[in-house]
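Case study 2.
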Amino acid sequence: MNVVAVDVGATNLRAALFSGTSPVRLRKVPTPRTSGDDLIMAIIGLIKEVSQGEDFNAIGVASIGPLDISRGLILYTPNLGYGNVRIRDSLGRSSGGLSTWPTTPWRASGQRRS
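Prediction:
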């Protein structure tokens, strides 16, 4: 099963296509500092670049800033200055309705905050 993982960082966006636990393709670009819409467009472009037409079953997104996981929002990106980015709905629509899970880097890595 192939999945795409996206990391939204203050400096760079990173995306990877994984087959099982093995990365197939990795890419990074500077994180847009202009708006949430530009962030979504950059993520969609990265997903197309790493998937290169290969099928994938889900998209996972780790992001800086507080998230509303139940609504699929990046609430605020402290280092970028924008928020209320509808990450789940936007990526779900652009990928034909695939499941998209926003999460914090802590959750994505399996670590727990103490």
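The chain has a mean pLDDT of 82.
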